[in-house]
């Protein structure tokens, strides 16, 4: 396995001079060198051939012992120096101080086909940032991250990627329900990949410590390597940088809203500076369309990170980033203007996104109203988001609308009269509105089916894969992995995955709600 290694990140950014792997506050450094922990008896249970080829790793190499040793942290690739990053964050709206890569260890930087990638292990042992935890990850949360990040990539949502999923052979103690009943679970490691794992929190920590020298070094580095069309490290350059980050963050969140993804923990330490979906924890997929839903039980009280609030939280997080960048700019107005523009752009882009889900590709003054009514209707009864929007492209007349609704509504017997009336009204408005479009039904269907996925990683699907994997059957991981590579295609043999959540999964832990335990 010959990789084209680069060491730009570790050579250009300040390292923690202390190389002792002990828990501490790390100042004036972007990262600390640390070696992954050796594992008992590791085994790679799945790899992404697509991701491997992006790194210049062949399918044959993936099955080698050497690959296994690298992606489980048992061997360090020659001429590389693994490290953990130092960052802070606002968690659930409160400043949390230093956090850092508590269980992520960056292995190396690879350049292939003119792309630069960082490869990182999640769950490979303690780092100086592990605080009071063990630096490890369990199989269930690793399967969830592995499957979902690749699924998001294939959905066209900006995201970090996954290269491999391995068992460590070690046991890890976790209290899944946080109810004082800890138990041993299988330890696992996901190797994940991104052009950068830098987060808002990486910038916040220097600003909070008034370390402007290193703040500037980090921002200059980020601009140079990740935003090369920004001119210089001038005040204008920094404003521009913030503008780009704001745009990318909004773009990512609009995609989440389009596919019904709820991140669950949008703390500023989980916000990528590149606008990538990062840190798949207690995330979830909307089954019934519900702006108020969050999968995260830790957030049950306030539901800060609920589906309908994600765009607002993106803005709140950008506000924290603006505060962190302020010392380099020393003028609030341009930053405020960008934050205000986010609100304006959100309205425009969110409307466009919803129009495209409905197959509307021209503008009409009443579209906002049509969408508002649709969203109200979707909240009347439990209505499956994925099924509703996917089948909407089959709408032609009243009978077809009834078919769509009966497929998408959870309790299809005992539907109140009022419900039928409201949907009847809506479909009649929609039908009139479609007449204003120039595409034929066939063309419209083709376009809509490329926007409204047929297959997403429903919460219960991941849970089924986890349960089989716990019994050492990894076939469902592969089945779902393959399924989710083509989320917009009709896959007749996989029709069973285009179905409402089964009743048994309604309130089951892991299927409907999740804690942060991972
Ligand atoms: P999260 O909300 O999962 O993104 O994690 C918040 C912070 O807790 C990050 O700094 C993580 O690195 C850290 N963390 C979470 N789980 C562990 C663990 N098992 N060991 C060490 N650090 C952890
Ligand atoms: Mg995190």
> H/E element string?
EHEEHHHEEEEEEHEEHHHEEHHHHHHHHH
Radius of gyration: 23 Å
Oligomer: single chain
> How many separate structural domains?
4
The parts where pLDDT drops under 50 for at least 5 residues are none
Strand content bin: 5-15%
| Helicity, as a percent range | 40-55%
Average pLDDT number: 97
Q: What is the SS-derived class?
A: alpha+beta
Quote the distance from N terminus to C terminus: 31 Å
| CA-based shape | globular
Strand runs, count: 13
Largest sheet: 7 strands, antiparallel
Counting H and I runs of at least 4 residues, what is the number of helices?
17
Attached small molecules:
adenosine monophosphate, magnesium ion
Description of the structure:
The protein is of the alpha+beta class. It folds into 4 domains: 5-197, no CATH class; 211-356, no CATH class; 361-449, no CATH class; 459-505, no CATH class. It is 41% helix and 14% strand. Strands 1, 3, 7, 8, 9, 10 and 11 form a 7-stranded antiparallel β-sheet that branches. Strands 2-4 form a two-stranded antiparallel ribbon. Helix 6 (200-208) packs antiparallel against helix 7 (212-226), helix 6 (200-208) packs across helix 9 (310-329) and helix 11 packs antiparallel against helix 14. The radius of gyration is 23 Å and the shape is globular. The mean pLDDT is 97. Bound molecules: adenosine monophosphate and magnesium ion. Magnesium ion binds next to loops.
């Amino acid at each position: 396995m010959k990789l084209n290694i680069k060491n730009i990140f570790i050579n250009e950014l300040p390292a923690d001079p202390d190389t002792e792997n002990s828990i501490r506050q790390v100042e004036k450094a972007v990262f600390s060198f640390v070696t992954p922990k050796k594992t008992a008896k590791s085994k790679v249970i799945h790899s992404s051939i697509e991701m491997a080829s992006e790194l210049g790793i062949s399918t044959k190499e993936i099955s080698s012992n050497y690959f296994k040793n690298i992606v489980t942290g048992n061997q360090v690739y020659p001429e590389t120096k693994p490290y953990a990053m130092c960052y802070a964050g606002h968690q659930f709206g409160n400043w949390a101080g230093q956090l850092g890569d508590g269980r992520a260890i960056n292995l190396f930087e690879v350049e292939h086909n003119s792309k630069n990638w960082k490869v990182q292990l999640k769950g490979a042992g303690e780092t100086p940032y592990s605080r009071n935890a063990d630096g490890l990850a369990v199989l269930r949360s690793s399967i969830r991250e592995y499957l979902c990040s690749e699924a998001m990539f294939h959905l066209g949502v900006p995201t970090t990627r996954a290269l491999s999923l391995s068992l460590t052979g070690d046991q890890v103690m976790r209290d899944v329900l946080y109810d004082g009943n800890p138990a041993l679970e299988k330890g696992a490691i996901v190797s994940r990949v991104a052009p950068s794992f830098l987060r808002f929190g990486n910038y916040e920590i220097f600003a909070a410590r008034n370390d402007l020298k290193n703040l500037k070094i980090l921002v200059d580095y980020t601009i140079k390597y990740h935003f090369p069309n920004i001119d210089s490290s001038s005040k204008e350059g920094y404003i521009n940088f913030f503008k780009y980050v704001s745009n990318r963050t909004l773009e990512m969140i609009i995609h989440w809203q389009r596919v019904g993804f709820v991140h669950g923990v949008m703390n500023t330490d989980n916000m990528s500076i590149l606008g990538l979906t990062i840190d798949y924890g207690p995330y979830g997929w909307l089954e019934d369309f519900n702006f108020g839903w969050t999968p995260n039980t830790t957030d049950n009280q306030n539901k800060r990170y609920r589906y309908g609030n994600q765009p607002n939280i993106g803005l709140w997080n950008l506000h924290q980033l603006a505060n962190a960048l302020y010392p380099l700019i020393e003028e609030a107005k341009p930053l405020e203007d960008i934050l205000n523009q986010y609100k304006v752009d959100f309205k425009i882009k969110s409307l466009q996104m919803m129009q495209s889900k409905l197959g509307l590709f021209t503008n009409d003054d009443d579209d906002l109203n049509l969408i508002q009514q649709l969203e109200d209707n979707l909240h009347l009864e439990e209505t499956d988001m994925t099924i509703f929007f996917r089948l909407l492209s089959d709408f032609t007349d009243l009978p077809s609308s009834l078919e769509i609704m009966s497929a998408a509504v959870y309790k299809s017997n005992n539907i109140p009269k009022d419900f039928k009336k409201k949907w009847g009204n809506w479909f009649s408005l929609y039908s009139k509105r479609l007449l204003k479009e120039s595409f034929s039904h066939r063309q419209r269907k083709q376009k809509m089916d490329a926007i409204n996925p047929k297959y997403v990683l429903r919460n219960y699907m991941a849970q089924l894969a986890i349960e089989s994997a716990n019994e050492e059957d990894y076939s469902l991981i592969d089945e779902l992995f393959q399924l989710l590579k083509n989320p917009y295609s009709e896959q007749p043999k996989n029709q069973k995955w285009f179905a409402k959540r089964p009743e048994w999964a309604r309130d089951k832990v892991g299927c409907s709600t999740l804690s942060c335990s991972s």
